[in-house]
Amino acid sequence: MRIHLVTVPYRYDERDSGLGLGPSALVAAGITGTLEKHGHAVAGPTVVTLPDDERVDGPIAANIGRLGAHTADAIATARKDGAGALVLAGDDTAAIGVIAGLQQAHGAATRIGLVWVDAHADFNTPETSYSGILAGMPVAILAGLAGPIWRGSAGLQATIPTDRIHILGPREVDEKESALLRSTDVRLIPDAELNDVGHVSRVIEQLANQVDLIALHIDLDVLDPSLVPSSSTPSPDGLTLSEASDLLASILSTGKVATLTVAGLNPGAGARGTRSVESAHKLIDRALSRWRANGSVQA
């Protein structure tokens, strides 16, 4: 399988700081060789940037959206090359550009499914969020419940119907966020239910049969903090590497995954950062052997 390696080295619109250093840390750790080891032909890495002359004064979401438009271009290029895209992103806000790129390549009417693996549901809106953290809103924005400036700047052509959104592994969901989720058709499988492997497999199989393509996104805070001790958003009692890699592999093996986005790596400094990078690399390594070619690509 051919894979384009795409890096988005930003935390929000700030480059190469904190989480924004995660993508380059994984590249330095040898992720290209890992892809090739599993028989994938690799193009890139393509480094997505936001030129200074495109920045605007105003809501930060506008700049994140503009960055997302460049991410979309990289994803569309990969898809038109007949490739999947492995996206190494600083934070979860990159997801809007990833989906915009799939729509750019395949058309707004393409049935895209979103599988979001995260310790948090990231389904807040400005009205439900206690913290106002934008990285806690991408899934709700993709569903069309918030962020019109963000979506428009990124070039997102259509929102994702909530029955095509699956959130796996959350351990922390805000009260108002939970109420919002219950008002939708989002499929939520909390961390405690991931042990029922048969159930999870059936749910993923049903989604794969329902959609043309799947965008798979993982925030590394779904792992236990002992594995990612430099995490910016640690959440206790997370998944082991074996549990997380098996979960990703089962989704990748559906043959529908067009993009795999890995976000939330804080390489930090010292032993804690080194441990986090090693865990992220091992997770990707263990899952990649199951990534099968997906869907047709429109030229």
Question: Could you walk me through the main structural features you see in this protein, from its secondary elements to its overall organization?
Answer:
The chain is α/β, with parallel strands linked by helices and 299 residues long. The chain has a single domain, classed as 3-Layer(aba) Sandwich (Arginase, Chain A). Helices cover 37% and strands 17% of the residues. The strands form two sheets. The protein has an eight-stranded parallel sheet, sandwiched between helices. The protein has a two-stranded antiparallel ribbon with strand order 2-3. Strand 2 and strand 3 (14-15) form a beta hairpin. It is globular.
List keywords for this structure.
alpha/beta, Arginase, Chain A
Protein topology:
Layout lengths: L1 E7 L1 E2 L2 E2 L6 H7 L2 H7 L3 E7 L12 H21 L3 E6 L5 H12 L5 E6 L20 H5 L5 H7 L10 E4 L6 H8 L4 E3 L7 H14 L2 E7 L21 H12 L4 E7 L6 H19 L11
Parallel strand pairs: 1-4, 1-5, 5-10, 6-7, 6-9, 7-8, 9-10
Antiparallel strand pairs: 2-3
Helix pairs in contact: 3-4, 3-6, 9-10
CATH-defined architecture: 3-Layer(aba) Sandwich
Over all CA atoms, what is the radius of gyration?
17 Å
Q: Strand fraction band?
A: 15-25%
Task: State the CATH class.
Answer: Alpha Beta
Our measurement of the CA-to-CA distance between the termini, rounded to an integer number of angstroms, reads 18 Å
Considering the protein shown, what is the CATH homologous superfamily? Ureohydrolase domain
Profile the largest sheet.
8 strands, parallel
* Arithmetic mean pLDDT: 95
- CATH fold assignment: Arginase, Chain A
Low-confidence parts lasting 5 or more residues at pLDDT below 50?
A: none
Number of helices: 10
